[in-house]
Amino acid sequence: MITDQDVIELLSALVRIPSVNPAFRQPNDPPEWFGEATVGHEVARRLSAMGLEPELDEALPGRANVLATLKGTAGDGRRIVFECHMDTVQVTGMSIEPFTPVVRDGRLYGRGSVDDKACITMMLLAMRELVADPPAVDVEFVAAVDEEFQFKGVLHHLARKDGLVGGVAGEPTSLQVVTACKGCVRWTIEVRGKAAHTSQPQEGIDAIAIATDLLAHLRLTIDPELRVRSHPLVDAPSLICTMIEGGQGPNTVPARCVMTFDRRTLPGETGEDAWREIDAAVRGFAANLPEGAAITMHPPFIDSVSMDVSPTAAITEAARAACRKHGLSDEIVGVPYGSDATKLTAVGVPTIIFGPGSIDQAHTADEFVPVAEVTTAAKVLVDLARSFA
Fold first, then answer.
1. Among the listed residues 161, 153, 74, 90, the one whose alpha carbon sits nearest the alpha carbon of residue 388
2. Which of 92, 187, 223, 246 sits at 20 to 30 Å (Cα–Cα) from 103?
3. For the CA atoms of 52, 387, 176, 47, what is the dihedral angle to 10 degrees?
4. How many C-beta atoms lie closer than 10 Å to residue 352's C-beta?
């Protein structure tokens, strides 16, 4: 039996262990806050206590996924995967103590409480119940590294996809079954001008001015195109300039400006297609640059695919049935954010996204998750595994 107290004990233990993604480390941050190794050993210890045999599978130097498989009663080699991630985002600006879990008004507070240690908790508790009464299908548990940056953990795990017939990726979905999500492609555009003293601006080429004109050009040419496209579960795609860096000093015409872009793609779009569409618009703009100026459209540094899992996929039907059993809505929904689910789905493993808590609380200054939702989510996973066709 899974109780709220089980959730509080396990989730508190996980929140107490810092596991910030190393990509977010700042110069004065304590080194012990970063990496998933310590929380991974705790997860492995919990799996061992259930009678499972955990494996540490190194995906990046010093950063290992934690795996364990429960054999089902059918013995036919088919397996589903419960996949979650151990890394969190940075703690800068938090209004609560990030690694001191506090339970108040039915919520557990702390960094990673909802994203994604609540999902680690729901999956570990579900595995504990399934060990006592195994389902027909094999159930694989995977706690992955690096979801918050480049998805290297789940991408590494794809080499083990043989036999997988469905999956659940744990993310905060407010206990809704998510079958579709947008993809994300990110890249930089570099504008080169010419430095000059600001007392003689005519001698220079202002890279920041060119960059702002380029942004206006993209709003006029690309935004209208994106607004007329749509998907029934995730709405329209988007293009956002998220960062601008430029200039050398207060009295110098800026010779360089770099802009970072985030393009959210729809199911059916590829990151390469989206990038090339922007590239064509940038090339059109660059044809009218003053002599001596240049624009470079750099290749993507992130390309996370979208997904759209069929409503009739076995994993979808099992999830909806389990939700109904626990008095939850069985409506399938879409989300604008990405997750490890898209990588599994892209290689032929239909994977839904499901978990306790709201995505609105992820990465926030006072991150929290409702304890009762974690308890319910774990019970849903147990029934999902047992009803999987």
1. 74
2. 92
3. 0
4. 26
Domains of the chain, earliest start first:
4-181+306-387 (3.40.630.10), 183-302 (3.30.70.360)
Whole-angstrom distance, CA of residue 252 vs CA of residue 274: 35
Average pLDDT over the chain, rounded to whole? 97
Q: What is the pLDDT, as a whole number, of residue 338?
A: 86
Average pLDDT over residues 338-362: 96
Cβ contact 293:193 at 8 Å = yes
Amino acid (one-letter) located at 196: A
CA within 13 Å, CB half, 78: 15
Residues 6+ apart with CB under 8 A from 366: 94, 95, 96, 109
Cβ-Cβ contacts under 8 Å for 81 (sequence gap 6 or more): 139, 140, 141, 142, 164, 166, 167, 168, 344, 349, 351
Residue bearing tokens 């935004």: 223
